[in-house]
Sequence to fold (230 residues):
Amino acid sequence: MPHEITILKLRNWDACGSGREWFREKFPEGGVYGDVMSALYKDKRYEDASWLASNIYADVVTKEVVEGEVRSIHSAAKEAATTGDYAHAATTGYGAHAATTGDYAHAATTGSRAHAATAGSRAHAATAGSRAHAATAGSRTHAATTGYGAHAATTGDYAHAATTGYRAHAACLGLGGKVKIGKGSYGVLTWHDGQRERALTIYEGEGGIEAGVWYRAEDGVAVRCDGDDA
Fold:
């Protein structure tokens, strides 16, 4: 089912008063994620759109969420590659890639082997197809994938990487990152031991690591993250 947004959910996410008022006016009965994102882009509420995407990726990552992201981005821009801030890119075809370089400029794809990549801060990347990888380079830029063998990777600090597909790995190379992995997958987290940065690898099914759960590195140990902590 499409991911639904409600005023209660926005309150739980500590949405600003202006954002809640806008949502009540546009969606008095609640709304589906893709429709809400499309309306935000139409009204040029780009930072609110980025905030919503961040909370959705931390809450749940499904094929429907990614497809909703593609639809909403298509309503704001038709180009597959962009360079400006808030300049989003989306594709739906097989092997059709999406890339952005500006801040708050998201990239999303739904086709198989159709990769998504972003370079700006707070610019998220999401894919729904098999072997369609998502990569981000900026700080607080999340990467999410749902397809088989579709990896998610981030290099910026406080940037989350999430996968739900089988054998689809997630890696956070920046400090303060979090990962969520699927069945048969592994995740990589980066932490600082006081002298240098180190990598921590977790494997689904080993050491208590579960699929569909957020983890962060704390003193070299994977710690489960729940709710607002993710």
User: Anything to note?
Assistant: Residues 4-229 form one domain. The chain has one domain: 4-229.
